Amino acid sequence: MTPETNQNEINPRRFSIPDSIKYVFREQRLLFVLVGIGIAALISNVVLIRPSSTWHSQPIANSFHIVEPAFVPRRIAFELHSDHANAGRRIPLGLKSKRLRVLVTGGSGFVGSHLVDRLMARGDSVIVVDNFFTGRKENVLHHLRNPRFELIRHDVVEPVMLEVDQIYHLACPASPVHYKYNPVKTIISFFKDHKTNVVGTLNMLGLAKRINARFLLTSTSEVYGDPLEHPQVETYWGNVNPIGVRSCYDEGKRVAETLTMDYHRGLNIEVRIARIFNTYGPRMCLDDGRVVSNFVAQALRKEPMTIYGDGKQTRSFQYVSDLVEGLMRLMEGDHVGPFNLGNPGEFTMLELAKVVQDTIDPSAKIEFRPNTEDDPHQRKPDISKANELLGWQPVVPLQEGLPMMVSDFRQRIFGEHKESRSKFSSV
Ligand SMILES: NC(=O)c1ccc[n+]([C@@H]2O[C@H](COP(=O)([O-])OP(=O)(O)OC[C@H]3O[C@@H](n4cnc5c(N)ncnc54)[C@H](O)[C@@H]3O)[C@@H](O)[C@H]2O)c1
């Protein structure tokens, strides 16, 4: 016999079924093995991978297109939606991304940049859209190298297409001085304010609708005008002069609130509305005409602090970190609003000037000037609604917050990188 015929010869021992397999086939043992595998697969799919079988009806592999019921918390919903690169693959338990993609319009401004800091610290991916009208790149410079951060120069009066989960809409020239610069610019600024508030808000609501994002509008206590009710509750409709010098801002924000609610009711967009009362802190524009920044800058420069009117008009002053906490709670919570976000502690302008004197220079002088048109006499938020529904209340008193702002202003006015005076400072 040749070696070839030897190789082709059938070896009965090589093809015999091993005893272990014969054992499995006997007496329906195979059936039990299959049932066992089935139960194990079911447990791993339903119990371990899905957070709850009631949250969505489709498998996690298709999670990017899942339509979740309204009660799924936004952050959890995003966790289910997140990690698009892994779509189709199971994500090991405990490794799911907790990041949200958040757009902050006006994010290089005073409030926006502090909000961005908090969102970045939370681990979110943040896109800032800003035209730098009043904002500064320096306010967000420390995030520029972070791959989770993007800064886009863009005017919100033009549409923009981005993919995000939440939109904080802050973009808006917020201080009176920017629309009182001079008569010609006043008209332009009026127009710009209206455009930003109306067209800008429309564009951002349109974006929220297209990408199914939650939208938060930063409205203002100015919607109450010169209020006839004190303190102001959210149910108060306000006392606004529709043709006055401040009405571009007041009425612009009122229209923005209306648009936001119409998109919510008519198009089912998830929206939130915050009515922000006077806020102060580091990174405020120098010389922007807001009373706290004016007093602090003037006292540091040894100039008299300007009080318009008799100084008995009242305002409440909220430290910026308190506001940011309130905005984030509002965005993450279940309530549309509007919510007053402000510090109910009420100060006259004279009392505020005294606190600034105590903090910076006891010999700082005060100069009285005629009051500006439509200046509200009183402003104080009723924050019971935010307290009850968002569990929020301000925690930083003026005496604690002011020194933090003063050291920032001192650095910017006298520091190595001295900031030039604002182009609006001559008002
Ligand atoms: N700070 C307060 O006391 C206060 C009070 C009430 C309401 N608000 C509201 O909070 C928001 C933020 O206010 P802030 O104090 O940080 O003001 P800010 O001026 O510091 O910030 C506004 C930002 O929006 C940007 N911006 C303006 N118009 C824009 C446009 N058309 N397109 C893109 N970007 C634009 C500016 O460059 C700036 O960065 C505003 O909507 C304001 O109305 C603030």
Automatic annotation (TrEMBL):
Keywords, alphabetical: Decarboxylase, Golgi apparatus, Lyase, Membrane, NAD, Transmembrane, Transmembrane helix
Pathway field: Nucleotide-sugar biosynthesis; UDP-alpha-D-xylose biosynthesis; UDP-alpha-D-xylose from UDP-alpha-D-glucuronate: step 1/1
Cofactor(s) in the UniProt record: NAD(+)
Root EC class: lyase
Bilayer-crossing regions: 30-49
GO CC, one annotated term: Golgi cisterna membrane
Pfam families, per the entry: GDP_Man_Dehyd
Gene Ontology terms for molecular function: NAD+ binding; UDP-glucuronate decarboxylase activity
Membrane topology: Single-pass type II membrane protein
Family annotation (InterPro entries): NAD(P)-bd_dom, NAD(P)-bd_dom_sf, UXS-like
Ranges for domain NAD(P)-binding: 103-405
Compartments it resides in: Golgi apparatus, Golgi stack membrane
GO terms of biological process kind: D-xylose metabolic process; UDP-D-xylose biosynthetic process
Signal sequence interval, chain numbering: none
Main location: Golgi
Domain of life: Eukaryota
EC number per UniProt: 4.1.1.35
Functional note: Catalyzes the NAD-dependent decarboxylation of UDP-glucuronic acid to UDP-xylose. Necessary for the biosynthesis of the core tetrasaccharide in glycosaminoglycan biosynthesis.
Protein family: Belongs to the NAD(P)-dependent epimerase/dehydratase family. UDP-glucuronic acid decarboxylase subfamily.
Protein name (Swiss-Prot/TrEMBL): UDP-glucuronate decarboxylase
Lineage per the UniProt record: Eukaryota, Viridiplantae, Streptophyta, Embryophyta, Tracheophyta
Chain's gene name: UXS4
